[in-house]
Hints:
- This protein is α+β, with helices and mostly antiparallel strands and 485 residues long.
- Helices cover 25% and strands 23% of the residues.
- The strands form seven sheets. Strands 3, 4, 7, 8, 9 and 10 form a six-stranded antiparallel sheet that branches.
Amino acid sequence: MFFSGTTDSMLETCGVAAMSSVSMRFVWPYGGRRVYLCGSFTRWSERIPMSPMEGCPTVFQVICRIIPGYHQYKFIVDGEWRHDEHQPYVTGDYGIVNTIMIAREPDPGSALFTPVSRMNMDVDNETFDRVVTLSDGSLQEPMTGMSEADIKVSRNCISEFLSIHTAYELLPESGKVIALDVNLPVKQAFHILYEQGIPVAPLWDFYQGKFVGVLSPLDFILILRELGNNGSILTEEELETHTISAWKEEKLHLHRKTAGRPLVHASPYDSLKDVALKILQNKVATVPIIHTSLPDGCFPQLLHLASLSGILKCICRHFRHSSSSLPILQQPIFTMNLGTWAPTVGGSSGHHLATLKSNASLGSALSLLLQAEVSSIPIVDDNNSLVDIYSRSDITALAKDKAYAQIHLDETTVHQALQLGQDMNSPCGFFNGQRCQMCLRTDTLQKVMERLANPGVRRIVIVEAGSKRIEGIVSLSDVFNFLLG
């Protein structure tokens, strides 16, 4: 596995001899105690020591300067000659197998571009600039030379990583996991989620001795809609004593179903790829990781709630110091078939970009969340500039002071509903105090992935530099569907 780089400024001043070599990063991601690199560029006579990457001791790397052209190389891992089976290779005489590569000189035009770092995207005080500027100060969109081969290589690397790592790696060193008994009143469950600052909780049935479902913001949205309907089958008074189990039965009745689907869960031994596919295929936000391989008489153990953001965090952590091994990570998101874009901008997702005004009713916001099957809706002003966002998890703010009993969905505005939760301590819908996570169309996929890997962030709004007019949205599921092909 290798990465192409560019010459540094010092070498650029050293004449023709210096310019005749390029920096290449070699990576051995398969572990070992001592790893060396050896190849045709050293005439097979020098063993170059490789160093483990910080935070990832199983991945070794080294940067070498080599002459552009065709090369063969191998790794020496704990005294044994090895080649990278996931990179191009050639079999020579006597069955010797070497990894092959073509080192190319950097594009001289790339020196014209200067990236501008974009670390904080606070809605209130951030002034957006273009990510790419030319040396003369003018603006230009970044160029891309990503090929189908680059996409395939990157996807294969990520797929392999997800396939060999398990859900155990998602478990935090410390933390809490909250489960609710199905016989709890819905009202009490509503308050527990609000007070604990969590949007989702697995449901435990003591009589069956197993986890049977999940209580999520979707349940509360449906409950509030039922409370607001004429002839509702569930009154506010019944909410005081109506159990979660009884609500689930009512929910089946509302959807004209005779039986609910089984709980979607994962084992700690499942691969990260399997967990991600379960979340995507079942269109759920989280999947409980449950340990069932226990001695007879022991109840299953709830270990963690797996999410796409947690899996994405593992990907970002693993490839952070070797991102150039994944060509697609350095590409601007606008160059990819990724996310949902406004018709005036482009894109080919085929999905409608749903937004709301702050004076829209809460009822219309809840309906749009359900109809669009999304986790949040951007709130815009008359110029279509982003001012806030309303998320499914914001519904738990209505548990404060029993606000749900006083509001009318068609009379309460989205702005008023958001104000109810402004002083709450719950992190639902927030990340580091910022509700709106944004990016520019010129931001790289890697930057977008790192932002989506933060807890509580499921969608990022793509805005125009300066005006913050909405150009598109990219979600966790968009990224994983793209990465997994």
